[in-house]
Design goal:
This protein is an alpha/beta fold and 374 residues long. Helix content is 39%, strand content 20%. It has 12 helices and 13 strands. The strands form 3 sheets. It has a 6-stranded mixed beta sheet, with helices on both faces. It is elongated.
Length: 374
């Protein structure tokens, strides 16, 4: 029995150690920094100030500050004056499997007295000024090749065309607001800029990103005083330091690391006899291998409880839903074939659910694609 106990303990702590080691390797807080506009898209221009240049300089300064922290990894959508399409910015963020996405811009207005900072999170708004900012930033889509196909059904001049994403990805909204609030507080309390608040609007650059994400408007280049401040090295340093501090504060509050040194080491000993539990493990493995993997297509996540009927989901059917503590996740279709699942995903995206993705389940629990395809 003593041998059996030693084997169990060794196996248990080996698993803990492996898990802790894996978590430590992957425990870096990954930040995607996105400098708005670039290349053939200059962004806002007033009084000789160019948004694309100021945004890039601030992004590089923020990145340099964050990279001093060994627990932070920075990914840039651009580090030079190049044009990056909106969807490609989202692809960079998603492929990096980042923790947060921060897009940095500068504002402009016909009323040149306007000034101050504001940070946007993804959402719908009927507020005229919020819609105007989103329309201006989204108009970059016209500079992209085949924009009619990529953004079919979307018109930057019509806010109602964003309704298709209203119930999508609310699971990231709370954390987006948390970080956006920290950023705005830093601008106000440390840099002494006017706080225009945390707002919601339908930005195309944010819509396809699977993580907390926000878009910062550093200030108004149309206001000559504010533009001069943002165009200066000193002003850019202060704004960058404030943004970096807010990100690190958010990381400290919401990102936990696993310390491998605290994992106890147990000496492995040969068992006196072949332990009976080994047979049980073999039976469990065989049973698990016999279980079926089911693929579904997640098309939305919302706090709103919608009836799983076709007319609520652009004609897609069947629809199922899973509730957790705060959100309801909606799924389209069900199949045992991964190839068929990819076809269903394509159909869902064609129906307007551009964020649709494949989710595998086994024994009623969500598993990774990698595990599903073993």
């Amino acid at each position: 029995m003593k041998g059996n106990l030693n084997l169990k303990l060794t196996f248990l702590f080996s698993l803990i150690f492996c898990f802790a080691s894996f978590s430590q390797v992957n425990s870096k807080f990954r930040v995607v920094l996105d400098a708005g506009h670039g290349g053939k898209d200059p962004g806002t221009m007033y009084h000789g100030f160019r948004e694309k240049k100021i945004a890039l300089k601030v992004v590089l300064k923020v990145g340099k500050l964050l990279e001093k922290n060994p627990d932070v990894e920075v990914v840039y959508t651009r580090k030079t004056d190049v044009f990056i399409e909106l969807n490609e910015r989202a692809n960079i963020a998603n492929n990096a499997d980042a923790n947060i996405f921060v897009s940095i811009h500068c504002n402009g207005a016909k009323a040149q007295a306007a000034y101050g900072t504001e940070t946007y999170v993804m959402g719908l708004s009927r507020n005229a000024s919020n819609l105007e900012v989103a329309k201006k930033e989204n108009s970059v889509m016209y500079l992209e090749d085949d924009y009619e196909v990529k953004y079919k059904g979307y018109d930057p001049k019509k806010p109602e065309s964003m309704i298709g994403i209203q119930i999508m990805q609310e699971e990231y909204l709370d954390h987006s607001i948390e970080l956006a609030s920290k950023i705005q507080k830093g601008f106000t309390r440390v840099v002494k800029r006017k706080n225009r608040g945390v707002k919601q609007a339908g930005f195309l650059v944010l819509r396809n990103i699977y993580m907390p994400r926000m878009l910062i408007e550093l200030g108004f280049l149309s206001n000559k005083n504010e533009g001069t401040f943002l165009n200066s090295n000193a002003g850019q340093d202060k704004m960058a330091q404030s943004i970096a501090n807010a990100i690190l504060d958010y990381k400290k509050e919401f990102h936990r690391q696993v310390v491998t040194e605290e994992v106890p080491v147990v000496e492995e000993k040969e068992p006196e006899v072949i332990p009976e539990p080994v047979k049980v493990v073999k039976e469990e493995i065989k049973e698990t291998a016999a279980n079926k993997t089911i693929f579904k297509i997640q098309i939305a996540a919302s706090s709103k409880d919608l009836k799983p009927v076709a007319y609520n989901f652009s004609g897609l059917s069947p629809i199922s839903k899973i509730k957790n503590t705060r959100l309801i996740k909606y799924y389209y279709g069900e199949t045992e074939s991964y190839e068929k699942a990819k076809e269903l995903k394509k159909k869902a995206r064609e129906a307007g659910f551009t964020l649709a993705f494949v989710v595998p389940f086994r024994n009623g629990k969500k598993i990774s694609i990698k595990e599903a395809l073993k």
